[in-house]
Every structure is written in structure tokens, then in C-alpha cells.
Amino acid sequence: MGKFKASLTAMAVVVALSACSEQKVAETSVAPVPETSTADASGTAQFDNVLLQEFKGPYGGVPAFDKMSLEDLKPALEKAMELNLKEIDAIANNEAPPTFENVIVAMERAGDELGRVFTYYGIWSSNKSSPEFRAIQAEMSPKLSAFSTKITQNEKLFARVKAVYESDELNTLTPEEQRIAWMTYNRFARNGATLDGEAKKRYAEINQELATLHTKFSNNVLADEENYVTYITEDQLDGLPSSFVTAAKAAAESRGEEGKYAITNTRSSMDPFLTYSTNRDLREKVWRTYYNRGDNADSFDNNEIIKRILTLRDERVELLGYENYAQWRLEDRMAKNPENAMDLMMKVWPAAIARVEEEVADMQAIANEEGADITIEPWDYRFYAEKVRQAKYDLDSNEVKQYLQLDKLREAMFYVAGRLFNFNFTPVEEGKVPVFHEDVKVWEVTDKDTGEHIGLWYLDPFSRQGKRSGAWATTYRSYTTFDGKKTVLSSNNSNFVKGAEGEATLISFDDAETYFHEFGHALHFLSADVKYPSSHSGVRDYTEFQSQLLERWLTTDEVINNYLVHHETGEPIPAELVEKIKKASTFNEGFKTTEYMASAIMDLKYHTTDPSKIEPDAFESEELKKIDMPEEIVMRHRSPHFGHVFSGEGYAAAYYGYMWAEVLTADAAEAFMEAPGGFYDKEVGERLVKYLFSVRNAMDPGEAYRKFRGRDAKVDALMRDRGFPIPSDSDQ
What is the predicted pLDDT for the residue at 585? Predict the structure, then answer.
């Protein structure tokens, strides 16, 4: 993330760091700490506040996570904003003729202090949230928005940016520099810089209110995740795997509930419980608790917040001359407009819901055969899907899980990174690099041949109170060379339920795919070869592609044969079990595709409909009925907890991007499958690194993909990948 971009989109940065998001609120405040600074002999500012200080220590400097104190956060943010505005004013008021160097590069150089503070802010927001932090967050969100607006509405600055973008100098710049000039101009033009008078004032007011609402939305979801824990007793454990029982017991004990078992209100706990518990009433209770997050008609209910967010977004883009929010959002994405995005999904949707019908029929047949006397409901889907899996493919998910050890999967990821990227991962001695929690471990990443230092990789794998749900990747420092080479500080974060003391942490196959997915984001960071910070800004319907593609290496023979070993015996996973996994590769694809696409379709519908006509719960239900949403499935992210879309704007009107990226993923995977060396083919692997990973956003994504594949991606590959029939009109 470029520093100036961090300034412009401060709220997006601190609310939703990457691929999956959520959060909470409080009513306390923290007293500010006096801020002072001096300068050393070189003129570099020296701050008493740790959060503002340059990263010190080994590896080009690392965040001082061991010294971060919440009482420093508010004054650090205020000071960093003050310093950044001074930098911006100096650029805007420079009397020299505007050039790429004194405008665009100067902006790339600005905001160091703010970038460092955001690193710590992100840790408190995502990994270590607390009522005290949430109070600061609620107070600072509108202030950060106002700060960003001061930059985007700086008329002198925009005039200089525009002058550079329209100058003859542009043609003399490198392709990366030309793209950065365009992105900088575009950020201003699309964020209110061209407005005048009352319109400009109203634009700023809307941004401030949205910042507050996004924060409140995410904090409400986190409140429901923390407050709604289902505790069960020993006589309610029927069907649950021993590994899950052990972890649930540990989760209850950590919450002071000795003798009980905790089903936390997170996907990693909910999903296996619904898959294995034989207690149907409890399955329904856990299901309702999870899918009603943000929708409990209490002080943490998000429905009114959604309405207000949609109203404000619509009003804001109307000021810019757009018909709806989705039109504005997708203008500079690969999809270009909401019609193209919806068209892609509607190519896939009919096949997905048809497959669901087949899946439900198979489930109902088993339920009838067992004399269950039920009609399949959403809380039955995972349970009976598992029975179907065992009946059709003789495949037991819990049996597979015995071979999916978290530590071994991490070693497998390192192996893949070594083969494709020539990276070597070496554990950093404990205590050498500060961490923010004892669960966090750090590895040094080097080039296998030269030993050159590439960066550090932090891993925070386990669920805990105060940590947002889901999995995500982020960076504490990105690679650049424009002011001397800066190496990468990359982080992966998950919410796996920690195994009991002395036992391996076992995860599901879906979780293993997610593990590889997020590591794909990390490799995207670590393999970067760009000059400027802004080249790390992502195109949302493209940034998931690289990580989705890396999931494919989980099922390569090299990984299966060497890293999927039984947690007790150490024996490799049997060949016959592997064969069953591969035969069942498209099993339950109807469920997975439909629950995701329902969320993506609703996202676009929310952002192409007059907000005055929307009551979220009713709108969600009515619109899903119009597209024949199966009654046995709900959206993967129901509207009141749809953090991707309502806790910030990164994925708003853009959640379809995962499906867009899936088309690229399936097509790119076939490039490897067609190659002599398969997924480890040297030539295709080199193109992968050169055009799909290292360039980040320094090249147009469409152009980059064509350089890798020799053509545009085709939807046919996706349909083949999911076992769906190929639409007759599929040319893209």
C-alpha cells in the first residue's frame, strides 16, 4: 500500500486490511498523551511516541510491537496527520513548475509517520481489539476521514497533479511512472476533487459520516461474535470429532467455563459443528446464532446502519454525476461496469442452483432412508452433505482431517514457495523480532541461490477474543526502490481453533485451501519488484486471483506425498484416500458456489437500487427469491454482517471480484496443466512470477494476464473446474 494512497483511503486501510473482514464499539475514551519531537543532527524527526518512530532493529527495521501502548495511539494519529498535511501543503504550494518528481514522487515520499501508525492501528483493529481501542476508533474514524478529504479537496494540489498528468513529460516516463501518474490523478478526480462549493462541502460531510458508520457496523458484528458463544455439555457431544471436542473444551476453559465446551460464533467453529453434530436442535441454534450476527434487533443491530450507508453512498456518487454507486465503483476495475459483473455471474448462477437441487435430493434420500422424518433445512446441509460424501465417494472429511496438520501445511507452503519463487523460509530466533502476541511466529525469507534477504513473514494462526473473524494477509512494509531498497514485512492471520497442549492443530480441507490462499497474498507481497509505493495498490477484482491460484498447489502430488501425513503415526495419506479426494473435487460445488454468488449478486443489487426502496432484511429475502435462491442455503455473508461491503468500501459493489478472479484462476491453472512440467513447470512458473506476481499494480491487470497466457481468460475453464455445463454463448 502506497503511503499517499493510505492517506487518501485512510478508513479503508484501518477498517478492512484484506480479503476477509469484521469488528466492534465501546463508550470509553482514552486521555491523550503529550507529544513532543526533536530532530537529530541529520534533521530527521525523533519522536517520543513509539508509534511514530522509524522501525528499528534487524532486517531493515521492524515494528516495535513489544512497546506499543494504546495510550499512544490517539496522539500518534493526530501528530501523523498534522505532519502529513504539512508535507502535502509544501507540495501544493511549491512555486516551481509541476513535474513528476516534485509532485507525484513527492507525494509517494510523504506520509511515513502515518504509515507506521496505521501498522499499529491495524493490529489493534484486527488482532487485539478491546473496548478501549474501539472507543478511540469511534472517535478517530471521522477525523481520519476529514483528514483525507483535506487532501483530496486541496485545489492547488489537484491542479499540480492534473498538470503533470496532462503534460508532455508524461510520455518520457517509464510505464510504471505513467501508471502512477494516472492512478494519482484518478484518485483525486473520482473522490471529489472536481467538485465546487456546496457540493464539495457535502462530499466531505458524507465521507465523515460513512467513516463512523463503517466502524460501527464492523464493531457491531464483532460484538455479536464475542457475546454469542454456545456452551454445551458432555452429553451433547454426539458425532463431534475428538479433535473438535478437545479444542472446544480449551475454548470454554479460556473463557472461564470449566467442564463445558464452547462453540464460538465464528466460521471455523460453526462449520465443523454443523457438519458433525447429531443434535439437530443444537445445529439449528448454532446456525441461527451465526447467521443472525448483526440482525438481533438489539443495540448491535446493523439494519438501519446499512440503509444509511447505502443512502450516503448513492448521494455521494450522484454529486460526481454517476447513476449509482456500482457504476462509480467498477469504472476503474477489470469489469468496468456492473452489467459486465452481473453478466459473468448469471452465466454461472443457473448451473450452480441446478447443482444445489441435485445435492439436496441426494441428502433428502439419505435422511428418508434413515427415517429422520425431516425436510432438509439450512442447518442440515453440511451434516447431510457429509453423509452424501461418505455414501458417494466413501470419503470421510474427519478422516482427511487427520492428515491436515497446521505445521505440516505450513512446511508445504514453504516448499511451493521454494519451487515457484526460489524463496527459503528460516525461523527467526524467538525474541529477536518483537511480536504482538505469543502465538505469532516469524520467518526470514531469502533467495535460495544467493541468500539475499527478501523480507520477513509473520504468522498469527489462532482464534482468540478480540481478533476479528476470517483470514487475511497484510504488510507492515512493502517493497520499493525509489528511495533505496526497502524489504518486505508480510503477515498472514487466521482463526484456526488451537489444538490442545502437546497435540497437533488439525484443520479441514477447506481451511487448508484458505491457508494456501492467504499465503498466496503473502507471496504476492514478497515477490514484488516495483519502484514506488503506489504500485502496491490493488485492483479489487484482480487482487484475489493470485491467492486463489495458489490454492491449486495444495493438491499437487509433491505436497500430498510429502506433507499430508497422519498426526499420530506420521504415515503419508493413503493413495486410495487421495484418489477419493480427487474424485470428490467438485462435490458440494453447488453449495459453495451458490452461497458465495448470492452474496455477490446481492452486493450489486444493493448498489444499483434506489436506497429509499431498501429495507435490508426484506430486500435480501425478496431479491433472492427473484433469482430462485434455494431455500436450503443462505448467503455466505448475510447483509447485517457483510463486513466486506459495509465495514468499509474496499469490496463494496465489488464482492463479485472473487468470481472474476476465479475465472482467471481456472484459466491460469489450465496453463500449468497443459505444460510438460505440470504445476511446477519452469517456463510457466517464470511467467507466473514475472507477469502475475512481481508487477503488482505497476501494469494494467488485463495486459499482465495476456502476457502470461497469450490471450484473455475464458469462462469455460471455470465451468469445467466446477463440473458445470459450459454455456453455449461463452466466448470470454
Answer: 87
The amino acid at 77: L
Biggest CA pair distance of the chain: 83
Report the DSSP pairing between strands 37-39 and 441-447.
Answer: unpaired
* Strand (E) or helix (H) holding 441: strand 441-447
**Strands of 472-477's sheet, edge to edge?**
423-427, 441-447, 453-462, 488-496, 472-477
Q: Which long-range contacts (CB under 8 A, 24 or more apart) does 42-46 make?
A: 45/83, 45/113
Architecture of domain 406-573: Orthogonal Bundle (1.10)
Nearest to 495 by CA among 458, 513, 468, 520: 468
Whole-number Cα distances in Å, 27 to 71, 140, 226: 16, 13, 17
**What does the alpha-carbon distance between residue 209 and residue 214 come to, in Å, rounded to a whole number?**
9
Handedness of CA 609, 610, 613, 615 (dihedral sign): positive
Closest CA to 666 of 618, 728, 713, 632: 713
Separation of alpha carbons 140 and 325, rounded Å = 25
Give the number of other Cβ atoms within 10 Å of residue 448's Cβ.
13
Gyration radius (Cα) of the chain, Å: 25
Which CATH number applies to 303-395+588-655: 1.10.1370.10, 1.10.510.10, 2.70.98.10, 3.30.460.10? 1.10.1370.10
Element (H, E) at 125: helix 112-126
pLDDT at 728: 67
The CATH class of 3-217 is mainly alpha
CA distances (Å), 599 to each of 387, 471, 628, in order?
A: 26, 18, 14
The pTM (predicted TM-score) of the whole model is 0.84
Residues in the chain, pLDDT under 50: 1-44
Q: Cα 194 from chain centroid?
A: 31
Residue from 457, 723, 476 nearest 590 by CA: 723
Residue ranges of the domains in the chain?
Answer: 3-217, 228-291, 303-395+588-655, 406-573
Strands 453-462 and 472-477, bridge-based pairing: unpaired
